[in-house]
Amino acid sequence: MYSTLFRNVLFPFYETKLRGRATLAYLGELERSQWRPERELRELNWRKMLAALRFAEQSVPFYRRRFAEYGVRVKDVHAPEDLARFPVLTKADLRAHGSELIADGWRGKLFRSGTGGSTGEPARFFYDHATYECRSAAALRSDAWAGGRIGDKELYIWGIPTLEPRWKKAKRTLHEALIRKKTVSAWNLAEERLAGVVDEIRRYQPNLVVGYTSPLYYTARYALETGHRLPTPRGIIATAERLFPHQREVIERAFQAPVYDRYGCREMMLIGAECERHEGKHLNIENVFLEVVRGGRHARPGEPGEVILSDLVCRSMPLLRYKNEDVVVAADKACSCGRGLPLLASVEGRVLDMIVGTDGQLLSSVFFPYFFKDNPTVERYQVHQDKTRAITIKIIPGEGYGPETSQAIERDLRRFLGERADIRVQLVSDIPVTSGGKFRFTMTEVPIEFGRGAAA
After folding, report:
1. Which of 69, 115, 409 is CA-nearest to residue 265?
2. pLDDT, tens digit, for every residue of 308-359?
3. Gene3D superfamilies under this entry (predicted)?
4. Which domain holds residue 373?
């Protein structure tokens, strides 16, 4: 009863009338456009890309200067291949030139965000409310593919602010209760905490479960190994990390429900998501222009390549040809569902490890980008745990970094890993990449086992 009332009356009134948001209008457009032929969607995608480039050239100081330095003009762009002559935007650019990326004369409200990404190099950026509404609509569309409906119960195994004021926590709890959403922390996943997570899932009986891949996997594995029966939602959405086949199998077996793999990044939010056919991730082509680049050219379908992203919606701080340091493979065929949205065959990057605390706490490595993203004095970091569970955090210090910063990092991390945790901050001038050219920002040598007390 409440779900129907919320979906058809309360949420539309709140979102459209009270808040003046266009989220539901955007959602309606996306639900219609997904069935257009791929050729039409790609043409629309390209027109939006050209419009974004023209706006950047005319209205954004950073792009005006950088395009001039590269000797490129938008009027000379006639095909996607021409984009190879244009500069790539990096996290270093965001850090060094963030103010120049704000459009001339922008007067609207800006929302601040940041990410450590899969490289451990924090970056800060801004976006406007129209952008937020478009991104929310895209997420709602892909939720529906996984069986999610506005007003139905959703449970998130997700990041919760580590030092949230009491009043803010109370406000968030009330808001979640009204929209029928429950969030359990993805940070501390010790065996006794996993028992609590399983109990919360069983009590809440969610219609949709959303979570970071590793915490979802360890929750499901714990339930199976300890004989706890989980409720069966319509679907489970796994995101933030690469989903391996063995993880999908364990999660689906524990919940007796299908898993939907989703790919995104904080800078653009949703990039691609699986539909009910699970044949790849449909690209959010109405909002994002994606290039897969290999050796200075666009990779062919089936070839792995670096991701270059352009936000087609944001006009306050447009991120164009942004290198998010992931590797993906584009599919060479359409999905049998009939949607015209092209597919990603796989996301090859972002393999994350779990860090084990002194008493068996399991800390999702997604925690560390969250932990460092608002610390501008940390240029880059890498977390390594050896077989003795000793943790070394290598940090390239930035401006304003001092001895007290190291002490604060060690102190705050012990709140999550135990007071006896052996944590050492090591200041370095460089952090090397792997032999494959990928940066791993968490590495652990500690195996994880359940059913024997603390993880060992």
Report:
1. 115
2. 999 999 999 999 999 988 889 999 999 999 999 999 999 886 545 678 888 7
3. N-terminal domain of ligase-like
4. 354-444
